[in-house]
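Translate structure to sequence.
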């Protein structure tokens, strides 16, 4: 299975419409891949909070339409990163979009863990409530977004739901890049699953982005890692490696859940 991660440079001098068209063209160039992955909030920038409401879209909005066409033209499964979604309830969400190779909208995932503590995304956007998996012909993907990477229980839940690989679009800042690579490898090792983590490059809203999109195998080995700028990583994944790893080193079978709280 061939996967391509498109690390987008989110340049504030480029309009949202121009970037949307440009990224659509980049997706179309990935014909021959099975899966293409884009970053988090690449239309506006993950830290460009002032644009969230102005550029919020419905699930059938301009980004969805462009990405649907691009997926169909390239004949790929497309995880189109995430967009600021305005839900039917009027609430903003950080929502990932997944399209099948015929361009059909296949899955959406609203980010559960919102970053910012008492500002930014944490107060501007609503939280998702559901784990989401996407069954591709060779791998079942577990969907997560950026800050979700810090919460291992989410990934355990995705494993229990059948995930063999985690797809994690992000807008991770350069100042915490060491955490990005460390956590990506940790999620792979502890769950014996592939990790495909796709970030952004450049600087937006004054925040330098980490870039360094990364693909990690179920043993924690880094198969490919990007630099800081716009770049495309293309990696061949072996779907059988997940089952093989879990059979050779069956650590997941030794999980102990439901322990009593400590006695006082």
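Result:
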């Amino acid at each position: 299975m061939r996967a391509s991660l498109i690390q987008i440079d989110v340049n504030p001098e480029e309009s949202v419409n121009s970037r949307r068209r440009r990224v659509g063209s980049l997706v179309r160039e990935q014909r021959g891949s099975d899966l293409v992955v884009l970053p988090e909030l690449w239309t506006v920038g993950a830290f460009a909070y002032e644009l969230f409401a102005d550029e919020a879209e419905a699930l059938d909005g301009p980004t969805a339409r462009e990405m649907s066409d691009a997926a169909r033209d390239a004949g790929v499964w497309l995880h189109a990163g995430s967009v600021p979604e305005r839900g039917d309830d009027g609430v903003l969400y950080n929502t990932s979009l997944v399209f099948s190779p015929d361009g059909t909208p296949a899955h959406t995932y609203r980010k559960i863990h919102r970053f910012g503590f008492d500002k930014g995304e944490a107060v501007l956007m609503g939280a998702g409530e559901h784990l989401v998996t996407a069954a591709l012909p060779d791998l079942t993907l577990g969907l997560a977004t950026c800050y979700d990477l810090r919460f291992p229980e989410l990934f355990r839940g995705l494993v229990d739901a059948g995930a063999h690989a985690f797809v994690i679009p992000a807008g991770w800042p350069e100042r915490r890049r060491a955490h990005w690579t460390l956590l990506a490898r940790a999620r792979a090792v502890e769950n014996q699953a592939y990790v495909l983590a796709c970030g952004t490059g450049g600087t937006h809203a004054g925040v330098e982005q980490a870039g360094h999109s990364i693909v990690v195998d179920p043993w924690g080995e880094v198969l490919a890692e990007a630099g800081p700028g716009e770049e495309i990583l293309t990696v061949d994944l072996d779907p059988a490696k997940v089952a093989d790893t879990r059979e050779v080193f069956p650590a997941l079978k030794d999980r102990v859940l439901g322990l009593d709280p400590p006695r006082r």
